Amino acid sequence: MRRFLPFLLVCILIIMTSSGCSADRAGHQKSGGSREKMTLMLSAAASLQDALRTIQKHYQIKQNHVDLVLNFGGSGTLKQQIREGAPVDLFFSADENDFKELEDQGLIAKKKNLLGNQLVLIAPRGALPALHDMKSLKRPNVHRLAIGTPKSVPAGTYAGQTLKSLNLWNDIRQKIVYAKDVRQVLTYVETGNVDAGLVYRTDARQSNQVRIVQSIPDRTHDPIVYPVGILKTAKHKKAAGDFFSYLQSPEALHIFQKYGFAVPPRQAQ
């Protein structure tokens, strides 16, 4: 029995050492095989937030090593943040002009005109039934119209163009309430702080507290185009490129269409 004990101890020691090495190798392989977690920053127009939050969920299931951070605001404000050095990987604008300024400054590495939208006149649901078109804005009982601030909010630029195109600007300019982005316009109308507002159709569709009074003819304003692009200063260029490609995929485009965005036929296929 005494002779057997040293042999037994050696066997136990070999088993323990072998198990430890196996665990160490397995742990090393697991560590080496996992992908490094990275943060990808997307600055996008406020009107995109519902669609992009859905896309964010879908994408992070596919690419769980990517932490996709979404920063929403007026396109002009986001453009200025990027010009001042904000750590942004991709920019998704609701306006070609703001995007072009960054292109002209050499800040955009790759670009795609991806989506379209439509401007609509909205009012609080159940209020002012006599408000039935743009001309009704001149009525004395319509006291306030909300639009985005034209210098920083593309929807506000389109709204101003429409009011001037329809010869309404001079008649109602004193009624205008300016908002920091299109979603604030929607909130003003939902809460009854204004009698009407000009927003995108996609925004109006997300609220059951407003009604669409009129769809604004495209001829009254510049084309509504949503360009998306990768910044030359993107920290993770490959990951930014992968997400840029995903935004153009049938899955992502279907989500955009679900939220009411227009997708050019060649991309929808």
Low-confidence stretches: 1-33
Q: What overall geometry do the principal axes of the alpha carbons give?
A: elongated
Cα(first) to Cα(last) distance is 80 Å
CATH superfamily of the largest domain: Periplasmic binding protein-like II
Spell out the helices and strands N to C.
HEHEHEHEEEHHEHEHEEHHH
**Under CATH, the topology of the largest domain is which?**
D-Maltodextrin-Binding Protein, domain 2
Short description:
With 269 residues, the chain is of the alpha/beta class. The protein is built from eleven helices and ten strands.
Structure, described:
This protein has 11 helices and 10 strands. The protein is elongated. It has 2 domains: 38-116 and 224-268, 3-Layer(aba) Sandwich (D-Maltodextrin-Binding Protein, domain 2), CATH 3.40.190; 119-220, D-Maltodextrin-Binding Protein, domain 2. The protein starts with a helix and ends with a helix. Residues 1-33 have low confidence and may be disordered. Helix 3 runs parallel beside helix 4. It has helices at residues 4-33, 49-62, 75-83, 96-104, 154-165, 169-172, 182-190, 201-204, 237-246, 250-258, 265-268; strands spanning 38-45, 66-73, 90-92, 108-116, 119-124, 145-148, 176-179, 196-200, 210-215, 225-231. The strands form 2 sheets. Strands 2-1-3-10-4 form a 5-stranded mixed beta sheet, with helices on both faces. The protein is of the alpha/beta class.
Any key phrases for this structure?
alpha/beta; 2 domains; 5-stranded mixed beta sheet; 11 helices; 10 strands; 42% helix; elongated
Set out the fold topology.
Layout: H1 4-33, E1 38-45, H2 49-62, E2 66-73, H3 75-83, E3 90-92, H4 96-104, E4 108-116, E5 119-124, E6 145-148, H5 154-165, H6 169-172, E7 176-179, H7 182-190, E8 196-200, H8 201-204, E9 210-215, E10 225-231, H9 237-246, H10 250-258, H11 265-268
Parallel strand pairs: 1-2, 1-3, 6-7, 6-8
Antiparallel strand pairs: 3-10, 4-10, 5-8, 5-9
